[in-house]
Amino acid sequence: MKVLLLRPHPGNDCFGLGPFFRVEPLGLEYIGAALLAEGHEVTIADLRFRPGAATWVRRTRPRLIAISCLHALEYDQVVRLARELRQAAPEAFIVVGGHAAAAFPEPLEVPEIDAICLEDGEELVPLLARTLERGEHLQRVGGLRLRGRDGWFFSEAGGERPELDSVPLPARHLVARHRNGYHCLLFKPVWLVETARGCPHRCSFCSVWQLYGRSCRERSIEAVVEDFASSGDAVFVADDLFWYNEERSLALAEALKRRRVFKRWILVQTRTDLICKSASLMEAWRPLAKDFDIFLGLEGASDQALSGITKDSGIGESIEAVRIARELRYGINGNFVVGHDWSEENFRELWEFVERYGLQRAGFTILTPLPGTEFYRQKAPIIPDQPWGNFDMHHLLWEPYLGVDRFFELYAETWRRSILNTSGDKSLLEWIRQVRPGQIPYIARVLWRTQRMMKPQAYLKEHRRSHPVPFATTGYLEGET
């Protein structure tokens, strides 16, 4: 069967660190590997690059089209893409999958889409292709939301989630034409590697643990080592929580060293409390890359702020983790969340914390209730109708305590204090000195785009475009937060 796998353009990425990150569609590469193993003819089209979807349909004439939907901000884009595809390929079966689709499928229940994948695509998409090829009833394919004559319904319940090694290595050759377009921070090209999936923690704003039931599945050490060895010199580890299993993580580090797999740069994502518990583990991993960055969900600048998002760790652990990581020569990148209910004192507390501990490499996102979380269910009654693109963690979804104008003044000032401000502590020239000559146009273009984050007028212009009707009062003056 001819199968077309599509990574859509995310749409509006005016704000945030989007310009610094464009990574390969790893999930589609795993699905592609599983389909190839069953003899199908597979094409991956990354629509963040040219040509467009209609051209790929003409080139490949697919019987099955699978679209990834990773983030809530992509819902509207995916629906528009499905409508375009339905016109270009009226007989094709169109399925949508990915994290956002599985966590909250309702926005995708439109006539142009035939099914929504609620489980891991590596198993479901090949099974779906097999069922379509044989002309069998799709209700037997567990883990789908299907469109029927009388509306949408669930297929049979799926079994236990499969082992990740059911597909040991991704089919990276299917996106080779775009390799030089995949970048992260200062590094280009970048390879994306997954060693585990899921998270056992319970941060209120996160949809990962709520989708996977606080489980964490791991790939075998042998598969991960092979994936690292076959990847390039700059690797972003996509795990939701790296170093979760200390024993396995130590064994993986030693296996990479035995294979002599060393990189120019590695980026991982983890928690501050894991670093505090595992300094020896971090020592074991540090020699594996010349530059080794950690992305930390710092989230808040006080214990009170952290307790409000069910972080299950304190500000003391944030401070200690940063100290340990720097002592071992890791680079620290992080993120703080900013609430709609923030006062001016909250902003000043954050600025002081960032300055005191030298956390200018952090980013700042607006605390956003992501569909599929309990947080979203709680806040849904006060969230007015608006484009799903506003769920990018840089838009206000309802009236803030300070009012829209003052909120964005302080939010822009927060970004102005970050390292991305080329008029601040690190000039454009200093950024350019860190990259190879051939990458100067890339880093200059990215930094030019990020400067709008320091301008409140830019936020206000975008806000008024996506919210033509002013917010209604949300009750903050009566004490609601």
- Please mark out the parts with pLDDT under 50 across 5 or more consecutive residues, or reply none: 477-481
How far apart the termini lie comes to 53 Å
CATH architecture classification name of the largest domain: Alpha-Beta Horseshoe
Mean pLDDT: 94
Fraction of residues in H or I helices: 25-40%
Rounded radius of gyration (Å): 22 Å
Largest beta-sheet details:
7 strands, mixed
Total number of distinct structural domains: 2
CATH topology of the largest domain, what is it called?
pyruvate-formate lyase- activating enzyme
Structural class: alpha/beta
Task: Using the coordinates above, name the CATH class of the largest domain.
Answer: Alpha Beta
Instruction: Report strand %.
Output: 15-25%
Lateral arrangement of strands in the main beta sheet: 3-1-4-5-6-7-8
Number of helices: 18
Number of E-state strands: 17
Going by CATH, the homologous superfamily of the largest domain would be tm_1862 like domain
Overall, the morphology is globular
What can you see in these coordinates?
The protein is α/β, with parallel strands linked by helices and 481 residues long. The chain has two domains: 2-154, 3-Layer(aba) Sandwich (Rossmann fold); 179-478, pyruvate-formate lyase- activating enzyme. 36% of the residues lie in helices and 17% in strands. The protein contains 18 helices and 17 strands. The chain has helices at 26-37, 53-60, 75-88, 99-103, 121-134, 208-212, 221-230, 246-258, 272-277, 279-285, 303-307, 315-327, 344-356, 374-379, 404-416, 428-432, 440-450, 456-466; strands at residues 2-7, 21-22, 41-46, 64-68, 93-97, 115-117, 144-148, 151-154, 183-184, 191-193, 196-198, 216-218, 234-237, 263-270, 289-299, 331-338, 362-366. The strands form four sheets. A seven-stranded mixed sheet has the order 3-1-4-5-6-7-8, with helices on both faces. α8 (246-258) links the parallel β13 (234-237) and β14. α2 (53-60) crosses α3, α7 crosses α8 (246-258) and α15 (404-416) crosses α18. The longest helix has 14 residues, at 75-88. The protein is globular, with a radius of gyration of 22 Å.
